[in-house]
Design brief:
Blueprint lengths: L7 H5 L8 H21 L44 H8 L1 H6 L75 H10 L1 H10 L36 H5 L5 H5 L5 H5 L17 E2 L2 E5 L19 H4 L12 H5 L45 H4 L39
Antiparallel strand pairs: 1-2
Length: 411
């Protein structure tokens, strides 16, 4: 092999793959044949099937059905080199759909932007085939305001086809369809539910169980505590026939329980200041927040001792309002017992005589009360010395009754 020469002339003349003269001729013949066949058949060789022949109402684009387009594929299919889409040509004829897409209130206007006509409308499946066909697995039903999420696992139901719910047309839905199905599944519950709220199911339900089996009242602003957990929905949400009304349910105690107020609003309407959701008998009140804090023996007194007959408001706060029958002084000192007595017990007395018109000075400070207040008389006593101290015999009446002109209270 050493020194062998290679003939490069043969290498240069070797054909490059399929670009041989024969292959090029065959390719041109095939292309010409396809072109002739397509022209002769009106491009039918590229069609997957006959066009739909179901006539619509008014003529669109000069035809009442797709089959009238004949072999003019370009009426629907834009050439691959064009920036125009097939959807543009659909909407050129179906102007009413284009108008629906301009707003969100109609079916076509609520669809996601990525959706195309061909996602729902399919042709070339025969003259009598249905032009509208939804794939429930991929169709975003929530975009039209109702999700199919909760219905996927609902026992005893099937939503395999649109007509299960849309019996008249995919553009129409009768609300009694909800009742018809759910009465078969849970009749007793549904009858009570409609009676409490409304037969208009779609007023509240969105198909994802926002207010269905997955609803948790404890996550709301008004969590259910105590006896509220035992209340039926209708006790608070009677005639709540829309979500707006349901969410606007009042949350104050008096909104529901004013008729149960044993105090007849004498304590106002803030029931929660004393009562809890555990029940009306379970009540706690901080009397220190009132105008009469409970101290001493008052803190051990039963509520009804002062609040007789359920009277809670406009009660007097002076001692005599409750203790007039206990006044050993027979009102001789007036009604303000607390001027001397403490709220602990009657025997706890602290009286400052120096605050009166007759301060006790000198020997007077050592005199027992009864020495002056005989017979329990405390008011109207004279402060003159002679009213207690008779003129000594050795004065023989020579100095009058003004003892203080010579004597002091020391002795």
């Amino acid at each position: 092999m050493v020194g062998r020469r290679i003939d490069t002339t043969l290498v240069k003349q070797r054909p490059l793959g399929c670009l041989t003269g024969t292959s090029l001729i065959v390719g041109l013949v095939v292309a010409l044949g396809v072109t002739i066949a397509a022209a002769a058949s009106g491009n039918a060789i590229f069609s997957p099937g006959p066009l739909n022949a179901v006539a619509g109402g008014e003529a669109l684009g000069g035809v009442t059905s797709h089959v009238e387009l004949g072999r003019e594929c370009g009426s629907c299919h834009a050439p691959f080199w064009s920036a125009e889409r097939m959807e543009d040509r659909c909407l050129a004829c179906h102007a009413q759909v284009r108008r629906q897409m301009e707003g969100s209130a109609m079916l076509h206007g609520s669809l996601p932007e990525e959706f195309t006509c061909r996602d729902c409308h399919i042709d070339h499946e025969g003259p009598d085939a249905e032009l509208t066909r939804f794939d429930l697995v991929d169709y975003p039903h929530e975009s039209v305001g109702f999700s199919l999420q909760a219905h996927q696992s609902l026992p005893g139901t099937s939503i395999a086809a649109c007509e299960n719910c849309h019996q008249e047309s995919v553009n129409r839905f009768r609300v009694d369809t909800c009742r018809r199905c759910h009465l078969e599944i849970e009749r007793a519950f549904l009858l009570e539910h409609m009676n409490t709220f409304s037969p208009a199911c779609l007023n509240c339900h969105d198909g994802v169980d926002s207010y269905g089996a997955a609803f948790d009242h404890q996550r709301q602003d008004f969590s259910l505590q105590g006896r509220h957990k035992l209340a039926a929905c209708g006790d608070c949400h009677d005639d709540a026939n829309t979500l707006e009304v349901l969410r606007a349910t009042p949350q104050q105690c008096a909104d529901c329980h004013l008729k149960d107020d044993a105090h007849e609003q004498r304590l106002g309407i803030g029931c929660e200041s004393c009562h809890s959701p555990l029940g009306w008998p379970v009540a706690t009140i901080d009397h220190d927040l009132t105008r009469f804090p409970l101290i001493g023996a008052h803190a051990e007194t039963g509520c009804r001792d002062c609040h007789a007959d359920g009277q809670m408001m406009q009660l007097g706060t002076t001692c005599s309002d409750c203790h007039a029958d206990d006044d050993a002084h027979a009102a001789a000192f007036g009604a303000n017992c607390d001027a001397c007595h403490a709220p602990t017990r009657w025997q706890d007395v602290s009286f400052d005589h120096n605050l009166l018109a007759f301060p006790l000075t000198g020997a007077h400070g050592r005199v027992a009360c009864q020495a002056c207040r005989q017979a329990g008389i405390f008011q109207g006593l004279s402060s003159a010395c002679a009213s207690c101290h008779a003129d000594p015999a050795f004065h023989r009446g020579l100095f009058g009754v003004d003892c203080a002109s010579c004597h002091s209270t020391t002795a």
